[in-house]
Each structure stands twice: as C-alpha cells, then as structure tokens.
C-alpha cells in the first residue's frame, strides 16, 4: 500500500532552499520516493488554519519506506539545515486501497 508525505511550507531563505533542493531530491530517490506534486497553494477551501504558501506530496511504496526516508542518515543533515531555509509542516498518510 502506498504512503504519501504531505508537506506545506514557506520558503524563508531562497538561496538556502535552492542549495537543499538537489540534496533532498537525491535522498528521496535513494529511498524510493518520488515527488507527485510541488507548487503554490492555489486556494484554501476549508478550515481555520491558513496553509503556508507552498505544498507538496511525496509518494512511497509503503509507510515503512516513508518513515525510513524521514529517519535516514541521508535525510538527517537536510532536516538539520531545513529550519533556516523554510518553515514547514509535514505529515504522512498510509493509503489503503478503497474498493
């Protein structure tokens, strides 16, 4: 069953963000993940908490793969540097098939 990591972020330092992007993409690919979407939030539809301006969805084959990526030694230095580059909210969804 696939798992999806949802990211909502605001870029605070474009130069740092640009430097992190290729490292992030390499770590993601090494973990078997892929970016399904990344771009600006078009419009808030419901809720009381306004979204940050950018959003993305990452796909992994399983929840275990998504968690392994997040906890990996390849991603650890990126996480450590990310706070200077962006403000982010991130969560993972285990997606069983709906029949």
From TrEMBL:
Highest taxon of the lineage: Bacteria
Record domain DUF1330: where: 2-94
Gene3D superfamilies from the UniProt entry: 3.30.70.100
Coiled coil: none
Cross-referenced PANTHER family: BLR0684 PROTEIN, PTHR41521
Protein name: DUF1330 domain-containing protein
Organism: Bradyrhizobium jicamae
């Amino acid at each position: 069953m696939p798992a999806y990591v949802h990211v909502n972020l605001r870029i605070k330092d474009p130069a740092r963000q640009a430097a992190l992007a290729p490292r992030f993409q390499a770590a993601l690919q090494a973990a078997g993940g892929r970016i399904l979407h990344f771009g600006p939030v078009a419009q808030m539809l419901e809720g009381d908490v306004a979204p940050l301006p950018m959003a993305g969805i990452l796909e992994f084959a399983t929840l275990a793969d998504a968690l392994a990526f997040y906890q990996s030694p390849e991603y650890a230095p990126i996480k450590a540097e990310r706070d200077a580059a962006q403000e982010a909210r991130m969560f993972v969804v285990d997606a069983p098939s709906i029949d």
